[in-house]
Amino acid sequence: MQINVKAHAKINLTLKVLGKRADGYHELETVMQTLALHDVVTLTPRVGEITLGVKGEAPAGKDNLVYRAAELLQQYTGCRQGAAIVLEKNIPMAAGLAGGSADGAATLWGLNKLWNLGLKPQELLILAAQLGSDVPFCLQGGTVLARGRGEKLTPLPDAPRMGVLLVKPNFGVSTAAVYQGFASVKPTKRPDAGAMEQALFRQDPVAVAAELANDLEYVTLAMFPQLQRIKDQLHRAGATGVLMSGSGPTIFCLTPVGESKQLAENLNISDAQVIATTTFQPQINC
Ligand code: C5P
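Above: the input record for the complex with cytidine-5'-monophosphate. Below: its predicted structure, written as tokens.
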């Protein structure tokens, strides 16, 4: 038996930092949305050991979340089975798109099946939170309000289907450094998850675009002023609803479905990867 699991990217439609906690993490309120863009994790049974092969750009070593997810499952269940895992990367790394987290979530879900472990969704979500703040959302997917450090999930009305154009500059950012920098910025447009929820409920893409806001954008833009140029270029090309995702540095904009490729052609951006995708609602939620 071989199992293929799609590991979907995400964007944050809103991201509000509520404060720093005693454990060093930041308390969040964020509306997250799954994208069609995905990696593929292929799992094949193997006696004893876990091996990881990577097609594309990602670390193949033991700090890859795929590997850590497999080891965590073995530790938690005492399972002695192994797996040959192949990761096909399409989601840019260190981009604010939760690519690594999606791979970790897909591995938890897939190995639970491959190894016949019978873990319930609730157990998988607890293991996911141990791997990283975005991993529980990646396991669940869809349109979700996440609180706590990102692990407390409440499903929201599905976002209207929209085109999403991603612009990922040719550098990554450290999530920890961006959160650290939050203390020294004063965001002017604060995210309003309630207003975003209303916009989603009304299936109103114009209102969704109007409510986009991310507290961390102020930090990453101060660190990398070239991001403002990308935002300006998107606006000049006619985009509305332009925002940084997560801790960045990817800038996204929302478009009517089928129009993001055309927008990409109107852009004159060098030193960045431009990817046209759409919002996506998974059929099988955790
Ligand atoms: O949970 P994860 O390992 O993805 O987080 C990476 C880093 O981002 C953390 O070590 C922390 O510095 C920062 N972070 C935070 N508050 C969150 C999520 C992440 O401060 N809610």
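Notes for the reader.
Residues 25-26, 28, 132-134, 149-150, 175-176, 179 surround cytidine-5'-monophosphate (CB under 6 Å).
DSSP finds ten helices and eleven strands in the chain.
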